[in-house]
Specification:
The structure holds 2 protein chains of 2 kinds.
Chain A (H helix, E strand, L loop, with lengths): L2 E11 L2 E12 L3 E5 L6 H9 L4 E10 L2 E2 L5 H6 L2 E4 L11 H11 L7 H12 L16 H15 L3 E5 L7 H17 L3 E6 L12 E6 L2 E6 L2 H9 L27
Parallel strand pairs in A: 3-8, 3-9, 6-7, 7-8
Antiparallel strand pairs in A: 1-2, 1-4, 4-5, 9-10
Helix pairs in contact in A: 4-5, 5-6
Chain B lengths: L4 H9 L30 E2 L9 H8 L6 E6 L2 E7 L1 H5 L3 E4 L6 H4 L10 H9 L4 E5 L9 E7 L4 E3 L2 E6 L4 E10 L4 E3 L2 E6 L4 E9 L4 E11 L4 E8 L4 E10 L5 E10 L4 E10 L5 E10 L4 E10 L6 E11 L5 E10 L4 E10 L3 H9 L4 H12 L1 H4 L8 H14 L4
Parallel strand pairs in B: 1-7, 2-6, 5-8, 6-9, 7-10, 8-11, 9-12, 10-13, 11-13, 12-14, 13-15, 14-16, 15-17, 16-18, 17-19, 18-20, 19-21, 20-22
Antiparallel strand pairs in B: 2-3, 4-5
The chains are: A alpha/beta, B alpha/beta.
Chain lengths: 262, 411
């Protein structure tokens, strides 16, 4: 059984401390949701874990099965078994999906000859139209198509641990269901450990969390079972946002797809 | 073979070389150029004919797949020419200009004397010249290829090409500029003439050796509803310059101009473009994309000029540059000069390193940094190469780009 271990992680962006000591342990096959208000450091956490330029780690450690991730460049973190499904997948003109995945697998010494057939099978499974597979990576894809594409790549690369950075933003209900189901299946299929960073609980309808953490002001302030997500859905994050006025009665983070008359 | 009297007269009418004043890099169109380093006395203007097809040129032709016709030019002399019989019967001509139909009127039809002193030098010094002539209404299916080869060390060579596309005629031409590994000065002048509703797709690959200096000029005119697609790949030379003048003279004329270029070591690649809209409802679209690595430099300056009468004009100009090393340098200066209100015009230019976000995205999937950058740079050129007029040349251009990336361009 593998383990993604984050201990006392502190990080800053442009001289400003955003993460103030994050502690988290995700084991293979587990789903951990990290929820939090805007500005809590959710995206910073995902970027720091993957090694995005522009962030400085000032303390703490991150390991996968004992391998120190923070000492590695991004592509070696991927090789160590980490995957980041991005909130805003970048368009890469002139680079095809197949090229990308072939290079990714080859660099890890894995069999890249299966890319074509695996991509076709996974694309069908997640409902990504075949015609989109020939396009340059993410170019001219809709929000939902981009998220399906991220999830499809996850399924092809079969990492040990996946960070989902707001996988539920910018996509419709059908795409959300397809993506979250696919990730849920991966937790048993290849024992994927998941760190699902999200603002809303709707991602967690199909992707069942074992643990829910609340991230506020750069640290985990509370952890619990799935019921914590339900509670947040009712009460919002007001309790965790110290610097702001208490949230009004109506949930300011209400699901925009929710039926207002429900 | 001796030149006809009209050509002898034409040449002698041109002023002698040493009376030609070299332009100064103070002039806007020569700013940042290396024209000050051009010393014509250093080079021997070729006056003797060359014979035989160089092996490299023959191999190139073989790699281009099916062709309607082909010409091999060696140091300014036409050493081989062929054209499908069926096209000969239709009045198409591909071969030495001086032997071609209406040679006297074809020469200089678009660019009498060219736009600058190097055009006039070409006028005075070119040997045979090449003519591609497609009569009205004729479609030439497979491309015509011209291999312009230079292998005379220390020579000054003045290649001349005239392409005439008649009304409603259609042809694709590949003009390949290659050389042996020599030092030479080459100054080509290309004239592209597109008659009413004619369609010319012209692809020019500049892959001369690293000891060659080239100052080239391409001048085109497009009449009513005609379309010119001109695409350039600038890869070779120590100093490689191309000036493009596209004249849209008839209502509904279109000029699509594109280029890829990639400088390494201490190369300078220098591009000047002029999109001239002189008639109503004319369209031009320019996309020049380049990368500079090593200590190389690139210059792009472009002007869109829309005349008072050119109502309903669409004119676009985009120049994007990737700077791959700290010591490389790229300059990009777009300009507009518009004399009427009824136009859609835009220009954009960028100079910058490979996009960090794109690299991070590929790396996050497990692609090593160097390979990620390589994929992105190669992909950067795709947009232009996909539209390159002669598809068979694209793998050769892509291979040359890969070679540069293999050599490492970051330092």
């Amino acid at each position: 059984m593998g383990e993604l271990r984050i201990q006392g992680l502190t990080a800053e962006v442009a001289g400003r401390q955003i993460l103030n000591g994050v502690d988290l342990v995700v084991k293979s096959g587990e789903v951990h949701a990290v929820m939090g208000p805007n500005g809590a450091g959710k995206s910073t956490l995902s970027h720091v874990l993957m090694g995005k330029p522009g962030y400085t780690v000032t303390g703490g450690s991150v390991t996968i099965d004992g391998v120190d991730l923070l000492a590695l460049p991004t592509y070696e973190r991927a090789k160590a078994g980490l995957f980041l499904a991005m909130q805003y997948p970048v368009e890469v003109p002139g680079v095809s999906l197949e090229e990308l995945l072939t290079e990714a697998l080859s660099a890890q010494g894995r069999d890249a000859s299966v890319v074509h057939t695996t991509v076709a099978a996974e694309a069908e499974r997640i409902g990504l139209a075949t015609r989109l597979l020939d396009r340059p990576v993410n170019v001219d894809l809709s929000g939902g198509e981009k998220k399906r594409n991220e999830t499809m790549q996850l399924a092809v690369l079969r990492p040990k641990f996946a960070i989902l950075d707001e996988l539920d933003s910018g996509l419709d209900v059908d795409a959300l269901r397809a993506c979250s189901r696919r990730v849920e299946a991966a937790t048993t299929e290849f024992d994927l450990g998941v760190l699902a960073i999200t603002h809303y609980s709707r991602l967690l309808e199909e992707l069942k969390p074992d643990v829910v953490h609340i991230l506020a002001q750069g640290r985990i302030v509370s952890s619990g079972g799935p019921e914590l997500a339900d509670e947040l859905e009712r009460t919002g994050y007001a309790e965790w946002v110290e610097d702001e006025a208490p949230a009004p009665a109506a949930d300011p983070f209400a699901d925009p797809f929710a039926d207002p008359f429900a | 073979m001796s030149s006809p009297q009209w050509l002898v007269d034409r040449r002698s009418a041109a002023v002698h070389t040493d009376q030609f004043a070299m332009p100064s890099s103070e002039e806007e169109v020569w700013r940042y150029s290396r024209v000050a380093d051009v010393d014509l006395n250093q080079w021997a203007t070729v006056s003797d004919r060359s014979e035989g097809v160089p092996a490299e040129a023959a191999a190139l032709l073989d790699s281009l797949g099916q062709l309607s016709g082909a010409v091999v030019v060696r140091n300014g002399s036409v050493v081989a020419a062929r054209l499908d019989e069926a096209l000969v019967a239709k009045g198409v001509y591909v071969g030495s200009l001086v032997d071609g139909p209406d040679a006297q009127t074809s020469l200089g039809v678009v660019a009498d004397g060219g736009p600058d002193v190097f055009g006039r030098l070409n006028d005075a010094n070119f040997l045979d010249g090449v003519l591609v002539h497609v009569p009205a209404g004729v479609t030439v299916e497979a491309p015509v290829a011209i291999i312009d080869w230079v292998d005379l060390d220390g020579a000054a060579v003045y290649p001349r090409l005239v392409v005439r596309v008649g009304a409603d005629a259609d042809v694709r031409v590949l003009d390949w500029h290659g050389s042996a590994d020599i030092a030479a000065f080459v100054s080509p002048l290309v004239e592209l003439d597109v008659d009413r509703a004619g369609r010319l797709s012209y692809g020019n690959v500049q892959m001369r050796g690293p000891g060659v200096w080239q100052i080239a000029s391409q001048v085109s005119r497009v009449l009513n509803d005609g379309t010119l697609n001109s695409s350039h790949a600038g890869l070779g030379c120590d100093y490689g310059r191309m000036r493009t003048d596209c004249e849209l003279l008839g209502r509904g004329a279109t000029g699509n101009l594109s280029a890829v270029y990639f400088g390494t070591d201490s190369q300078t690649l220098d591009f000047r473009t002029f999109q001239h809209h002189a008639a109503p409802d004319t369209n031009s679209n320019l996309l020049f994309k380049g990368a500079v690595g090593g200590h190389s430099r690139s210059i792009y300056t472009g002007l869109i000029r829309v005349e008072k009468d050119a109502r309903g004009t669409n004119a676009f100009q985009t120049n994007r540059n990737l700077k791959l090393s700290d010591t490389a340098w790229a300059e990009s200066v777009p300009n507009l000069e518009i004399e009427t209100n009824d136009v859609k015009c835009s220009h954009a230019s960028t100079v910058g390193p490979v996009d960090e976000e794109q690299v991070f995205y590929l790396e996050s999937r497990g692609v090593p940094t160097e390979i990620a950058e390589r994929l992105i740079v190669a992909g950067f050129f795709d947009e232009v190469l996909e539209e390159f007029p002669v598809a068979a040349a694209v793998p050769l251009i892509a291979a040359a780009i890969d070679e540069r990336l293999d050599a490492g361009v970051n330092s």
